[in-house]
């Protein structure tokens, strides 16, 4: 990893959880992100999980895999899973990975 990585969780109190990811998502941090998303998706009180990439500056294939892992676990537990605010090279990485159809990539937001 060449840059900082931070994650902040916000619970809206009504079953919605927003995971805000900042910095770079690469191989060095992808496992940690996967575990964070899995943990959030497995919480009984969660109905909708949003991963906000508005301040994410880089994502490689390992980062894409983390999002897909989080989505898979969320859907298995009956949760909605949304990736929001994918911009610039992060959006391009999601398109290049071929997950646009699966994640419904649309106007800076990814929804599943």
UniProtKB/TrEMBL annotation:
Ranges where the STAS domain occurs: 14-112
InterPro entries: MlaB-like_STAS, STAS_dom, STAS_dom_sf
Pfam families: STAS_2 (PF13466)
Source domain of life: Bacteria
Organism the protein comes from: Actinoplanes subglobosus
Name the UniProt record assigns to this protein: STAS domain-containing protein
